[in-house]
Amino acid sequence: MSDTKTNPRGDERSDLGEAGAQLSTAPQEESAGAVPALGVLGWFRWCWRQLTSMRVALLLLLLLSLGAIPGSLIPQQGTDELKVQDFKDTHTTLAPLYEKLGLFHVYSSVWFSAIYILLFVSLIGCIVPRTWQFVGQLRGRPPAAPKRLTRLPAYTTWRTDASPEQVDEAALALLKRRRFRSHRVGGAVSAEKGYLREAGNLIFHVALIVMLIAFAAGQLFKSEGGKLIMEGDGFSNTLTQYDDFKSGNLFDIADLEPFSFKLDRFEGSYEVTGPQRGTARTFKAHVTYTEGADGPEKKKVVEVNKPLEINGTKAYLVGHGYAPKVTVRDGRGKVVYSASVPLLPIDSMGTATGAIKVLDGYRDKNGKPEQLGFNAFFVPTFAGDGMGQMFSQFPAPINPRLALSAYHGSLGVDSGVPQNVYQLDTRKMQKFKDANGELFKKRLKIGETMKLPNGAGSVTFERELKQWASFQISQEPGSGWALGGAVAAIAGLAGSLFIQRRRVWVRAQRGADGVTVVEMAGLGRSESAKVAEELAALAAELHDRAPSAPEAEPGTESEPGTEPESDPAPKADPKPKPDPQPEAAAAGSGTDGTAATDAPGPAAEDADDSAAEAAADGPAAKGSAPSGKGAPAPPSGTDPAPETTDPTPDVVPAEGAEK
Amino acid sequence: MTHATTVAAATNENLAHVSNVLIYSAMAVYLLAFFALMAEWLFGSRSKVARTAAALTTAGEAGAGAEGGAKAAAPAVTVRSQGGTATLERPKAAPAVVTRAAAGSRDVPDGPGAAAGDEQGDLYGRIAVSLIGLGFLVEAAGVVTRALSVERAPWGNMYEFNITFSTVAVGVFLALLALKKNVRWIGLPLITTILLDLGLAVTVLYTDSDQLVPALHSYWLWIHVSTAIFCGAAFYVGAVSTAAYLFKDSYEAKLQRGGTPGRFATSVMERLPASASLDKFTYRMNAAIFPLWTFTIIAGAIWAGDAWGRYWGWDPKEVWSFITWVAYACYLHARATAGWKGRKAAYLALIAFGCWLFNYYGVNIFVSGKHSYAGV
Ligand code: HEM
User: Fold this and answer.
1) What does the domain layout of chain B look like in residue ranges?
2) Could you report the predicted ipTM of this complex, rounded to two decimals?
3) Where is the composition biased (Acidic residues) (chain A) (predicted)?
4) CA distance A604 to A200
């Protein structure tokens, strides 16, 4: 696979000399097999280089995606505890193994964390040097033209009567106007554009780090609690008011945002016809809230996708249900209990269950204090008597029924063990028995009253059916940063993928016959038709300023297949041979050396080298006379002249979105 | 009783019915287009072209028998319209720009397309494109009436998602054609799968038109799902061209090694664009869509934050969007990593699209999570 089709970057560049270098800040690949020879430090540096190489980044990315898969197929603790338990019960041999591998909490497991931490170390190790390199490139200047412009992906040439100096002037002005960074070096004009690509790419990778940190911070500092509120009741944001509460490791109770709100009314609407009859359509919780300890009261409708938001703390509507009002009287008719009892829905039609607990105040017919307990089963819309089981037919309360079964004795609430308010602990209770000796149960219409056996009292299902809504109140700092990071990531990515970094060179030299030969060439980071199009547009403009010499034919097409290829550059050689005396040559030809030498770092070296090469090339090019056909003789005798074998130039290659 | 239950408006059954008729009509039109495309390929097979082999042999001679990277040095300063090799002539006497293929890629011209210059084939091809255009309009009308009938965006369940997805995929194809991209050859594989997709939609996945559960009422839904559908459609076109690249590349490699591919392979492969063009097209599709896919996931996270109180919770759908995203990032990285270009990167692109598909079908069907709502 890697033999014929792929071509490591190094080869491509060697073909173009240093002119193609520094077009991006991607690290050069070195073969993974190069094992270090030096001691600990050498090993360390070798490991670091491996870790920050593109190949390892790619492998880590692949691992990350593979590692994420099991978490989507195996039930996860954070998301669905019930399913995890289920899985553990049914797969008794597999479960312990999974447990050991952390497969029930993949995304916080050691190995998954290891992958992404390595990836992000690698990412940082990659970004830092690339940023420096990029800064160096920004401070440097575009490198000098390669010796043979004909070898670049896009090339054009013509002969003109304008002097080389005039052409250079015009080219510089033109390129500057087109926002190229351009200067004259090594007897040619070098220009470059599209630095934003690199900037975008760096921003993208930095944004990934920002997002990760924001995500981690959010997990550490977050708090999340649930609260069930009945219509007419309120909540204020302190720890004691929550039904359940969990928080990240670094959360501090003092961080709870002070606010309170009251549920005025809950409103739900449901599909009434069709196969999806009963499917919920809208849920609205009408609330009145105050910010701070005693701010002004404000009203708001909280919906499923529209939480109540106070200073970064959000209260989401997560559930709702009914709370039938029940009044319990003792044998003498004294009211011992009267309250709306929230029941938990067990299906989407509003069927709900719960418990009614009469803790104190009740005395049996002998005057002895006792506790009462009722299992409650509620349906908002009853199908009708004799219609099998009592399950709701519709979620709105069209024909509500409340079924109760009654117990007396001790509810066991003082045993110290926290109790579930929706469940009755009947271990220390006795059943009320009906005439057949069975558990006493009754199904009540709204407004109905049932009498407990033996004059033990009565229970009334009042004509007041309240609803409740449950809220999840969460605070997750860092989500602003995560969002900012995400936006920056997209912007950076767009820059990185849509902007093309490219270079243009213009070289004007006087041929032996005194006519100036203009050569222009373009190079993009990856080949793209746009580079050629842009070069054509630039050439057309420059051509206006330096029109073709009269004897030159328009179009400057040479004959097909003029010279066969006999490229001397061996492919195995990754870099062009260094010029033996770059300094001397550069100085001798009197090129614009200052621009090249003030560029720092590697960019400077490149520019130097190629300036020297270009300069050394100069005399040779001058020596060979351009052919009368209009195309100049290539600067190197062995290089082929452009050939045009196909007269139909209108077939433009397929391309999707432009890079 | 303080409950306040307003009763939702009944859906407009009539419009829903019209929508169904339109979707079936679109299927019929696509079926005709499918036959026209088949005719185009069949007639096109009459012309015997062997441009690839010719190009490879001439290049081989010129390159003095060198293999692989040495082809970099081929005298390919030609005006052949192979991936990236093109001449752009300016009006006036302006000079022509000559481009050459990058080092290391084969200098192979693009195939002439399904009709291969055969007049009758071309006629059928044009008919097919017109039919596809018509089918697109009919199907789009079907999607719009469906949306009107439920008074919301038409992607509340998998049936609606499927019909919207196929409409958008056809739309992407037509848009690329309108932009004069060399994609007409995609027509046959595309329409084949569109027909399968619609067949699946109207049989297995059909859900009566209905409204959304409250969690789906959000303008982020519009943004998130519409971009998700668009990304999927564009990724799909990219995946088709990746597959074509892999075939064409092995075909070219076989020729280069001096092998003789079968008659059928030759006939089909000669008409496809060059592998380098296909590779580049794939890259551009995927690279252009990747930022949008990133945006889709972020929009989804924002929506999840509003609906469920956490913006990221490793729900299976979220996990698979993430996996898809990382897989496409792998592909993009592979393109920039030595030794991973070409076929290896192409395999990654296919895997990435596979992840997208699994996220769409697999997760809904095999995995239960928060993303299952009405019907399927
Ligand atoms: C962890 C180590 C990482 C390294 C060393 C790294 C390195 C690079 C480099 C050097 C490029 C530029 C390629 C070029 O100029 O052609 C690049 C591009 C890119 N990287 Fe990364 N990256 C890393 C992590 C990531 C991650 C985690 C992602 C996202 C999931 C990512 C997504 C991308 C994308 C989308 C591009 C653009 C590809 C292109 O220009 O064709 N990178 N990366």
Assistant:
1) 2-48+102-372
2) 0.81
3) 554-566
4) 24
